[in-house]
Amino acid sequence: MKEKRDEIIILRTTKTEKNRIYEKMLGMGIRSLSAYIRKMALDGYCLNLDLPQLRRMAYLLQMCSNNLNQYAKAANENGRVYAADIEDLRQRLDELIDIGRQILSRLAEL
Fold it and tell me: What percent of the chain has pLDDT over 70?
């Protein structure tokens, strides 16, 4: 059962500090001031991992999975696997590996 949040903390800021807090909160893509302040107070940081490479990688993984299933089905039905299909899949997997390395490199910079 989720614990009820019924305790209140009052925080006084200047107008400038309040504006900076809202700018940082919105910059992280967080819409709830309460959630942002709670996260920062408990963990000390918030990360916004909006990596376009991650979206591309997820898309390619989905496409590779679909293609692999189609290749396996065709191989089971007629007993043949075409070299062009395997090469296409290999190229997509190579791209996925490259994107994965880029993502890990960017995460290591954080």
Answer: 95
pTM recorded for the entire structure: 0.46
For the chain, first and last CA: distance in Å? 34
Domains held by the chain: number = 2
- Sort 99 into a burial class: Cβ within 10 Å, 0-12 / 13-18 / 19+: buried
With beta carbons less than 8 A apart as the criterion, state whether 36 and 28 touch.
yes
Residues 31 and 63 both lie in one domain: no
Residue with tokens 């918030």: 46
Would you say the C-alpha torsion 103, 104, 109, 110 has a positive or negative sign? positive
Clarify whether residues 32 and 76 are in a common domain: no
Residues 87 and 102 in one domain: yes
Residue 74 CB neighbour total at 10 angstroms? 14
Does 67 lie in the same domain as 23?
Answer: no
Element (H, E) at 46: none
Copy the structure tokens of residue 99: 């994107």
